[in-house]
């Protein structure tokens, strides 16, 4: 660089210049999702959270379909076919509004639609994916059970073949996002042939999905139990493309990638609230942002936030190149969710008592992230995934 070259100005919103890594299409997708969330979620989400509901979820799903956010990284069948980084940017912007909205999109696209797209028959794909991409049909993903979360291989839900070739499903699934509003459920069950996935229309006799209430996290989200009592399905309801745990686990890896980005959205919203508050809140005759201890907190938060976004971007480029390993996704989820929670907690200290008010987003994001920390792989499970990868020794059992 010559002495006459002029450096670009420092941007507090992008201190590392990460936007330089994005092309115009990336930025356009990010801005489209950000603007949608600002218009359709942010003005209302505090009230939704306080009431513990997500009203108009079907309308929101159709709007999300309209901007191409549902199954956006999938090809064909009405899906946007976006790149992994573009999908990640969408997840970041959605979770900056609320984790519940990102969960709606993630479960729809990265779990239910992804399972059908990757493992389904052509008939299953044609029947379900276009309407799911449009948001006309909401999907859910039934893996976790009341007694089996981190150990899905021990699931008790069972599917048996009837004499006529039909399948009959019995069991329970728990903590299922979108369950009570879904038109289709991808349900994983034990069979005499090993674990299989089933595409279950939710109007099938014997299927019910009571909503789970009294949550203190992800309150602006629909969470349900799935009950399957002798649910009879035709022979072609089974996903033909996979057997065993590799089916649901590959879906979870795809969804976890979105969380790597999404957690940084929650962290960014809390960080921005803390910066804004620190510049206007006065104590001892001056803004608290002018005190060394507050600036130290903000600097540390900014470092972890933008390191996390860089990590997410790196993993996205690896996914686009077909080189992203599940262990690397575990690396990202473990780091970014853990750091996002710490950023939210630190932001709360800067806001003081106001940090617990729904007038600000900080406590809402912090409590949401407590769920994100646990679902789709707890901290301990991702530590063990990395531990096995680092040592070659399996410590799960």
UniProtKB/TrEMBL annotation:
Acyl-CoA dehydrogenase/oxidase C-terminal domain residues: 243-390
Keywords: FAD, Flavoprotein, Oxidoreductase, Transit peptide
The Acyl-CoA oxidase/dehydrogenase middle domain, residue ranges: 140-231
One example GO MF annotation: flavin adenine dinucleotide binding
Cofactor entry: FAD
Biological process per Gene Ontology, one example term: fatty-acyl-CoA biosynthetic process
Residue ranges of domain Acyl-CoA dehydrogenase/oxidase N-terminal in the record: 24-136
Keyword NAD belongs to the record: no
Family statement drawn from the similarity comment of this UniProt entry: Belongs to the acyl-CoA dehydrogenase family.
Protein name from the UniProt record: Acyl-CoA dehydrogenase
Record organism: Streptomyces fagopyri
